[in-house]
Amino acid sequence: xxxxxxxxxxxxxxxxxxxxxxxxxxxxxxxxxxxxxxxxxxxxxxxxxxxxxxxxxxxxxxxxxxxxxxxxxxxxxxxxxxxxxxxxxxxxxxxxxxxxxxxxxxxxxxxxxxxxxxxxxxxxxxxxxxxxxxxxxxxxxxxxxxxxxxxxxxxxxxxxxxxxxxxxxxxxxxxxxxxxxxxxxxxxxxxxxxxxxxxxxxxxxxxxxxxxxxxxxxxxxxxxxxxxxxxxxxxxxxxxxxxxxxxxxxxxxxxxxxxxxxxxxxxxxxxxxxxxxxxxxxxxxxxxxxxxxxxxxxxxxxxxxxxxxxxxxxxxxxxxxxxxxxxxxxxxxxxxxxxxxxxxxxxxxxxxxxxxxxxxxxxxxxxxxxxxxxxxxxxxxxxxxxxxxxxxxxxxxxxxxxxxxxxxxxxx
Length: 412
Ligand SMILES: Cc1ncc(C[n+]2csc(CCOP(=O)(O)OP(=O)(O)O)c2C)c(N)n1
Ligand SMILES: [Mg+2]
Prior knowledge:
Elements: H1 47-51, H2 73-98, H3 112-120, E1 127-129, H4 136-140, H5 145-153, H6 185-199, E2 206-211, H7 218-230, E3 234-240, E4 243-244, E5 247-248, H8 250-253, E6 269-273, H9 277-292, E7 298-303, H10 333-343, H11 349-371, H12 397-411
Parallel strand pairs: 1-2, 2-3, 3-7, 6-7
Antiparallel strand pairs: 4-5
The chain binds thiamine diphosphate and magnesium ion.
């Protein structure tokens, strides 16, 4: 019998733990390092981009290199405003959670540029398959903040009537598909929708995001396989924010880069600085163009750092150095875009402060408006009948039986 030696198993670990000084690989890529790729490039042409890092903003936040999208400063200011809106919104929602006005919350702290820049680079007919870490896309698509807060509370005005966890938004009008609680499922669903658009001959592209942790699930590989074989018009992003709750990304990657995983599937793959608004915008616009010209999918690793806790239930000081995010080589996405705009003479500290004040009052009045429809502590809540309605057009017999039973119990 072969003796089992468990000490020979390779178990990955995190590079740093509480009490350690944060250790991050030093970035040696500059915006000039990687050339702009041809739209119809081969998968081999993207090898350098998969192991490197596409950046536009250099260490002084000047826009450089061939990937510079040369965006109008008005567009950049809209991006900055949405990112700041999201950060302030997140802070208010966390306060609501701590005061018992909603049950649970997840911030996008440090990751604000991702969904906002990427959605701004798309067309309005494009489909979004997000995780809970991309709520910012809804601001770009024009969702009303009161409606978002009502959803988080799960009050009578919640558009999904409390059927989803907070931050698991759905926004039909903005083609923002309902966030799935079982992580990863959206990745393969997105490929299916992309194929449906292709089949119907529509100029619609689908974008989806998955976390580093969830990418260790089968859904990720099914998605890449189908996208590659059928050349689906889809943009597949792995958001590598280094952590899956308390599990370091080394557990999902084996301490390798995530972007290169697209290459053996024959999918052009790029790694991009996830805290660089301009680089994200540029790479996404490029990927959309490929998809729209029927050149197939693009696989993107978005390199970033989850600066905050995983959720309102998490305490990261238990498993990583408390100040780790201060040492992230990518810095803070809002500060970087702000500094870039100041650098080109289109922004100032005064304008920034004014914007911040305006957004603070916008969020505060949306919050006051939303709680008029009920808060977690005091209600009113959606009717318990909502568990059974609006899911099936014709509810199956066993649900009708359960519904009757519930009504008898409730009305006793
Ligand atoms: C299938 C499944 N397994 C486990 C969970 C519990 N869970 C929720 S979020 C999460 C971590 C996901 O980490 P990652 O994919 O890196 O995304 P991030 O939160 O960092 O954005 C886990 C394990 C879940 N919701 N679904
Ligand atoms: Mg993660």
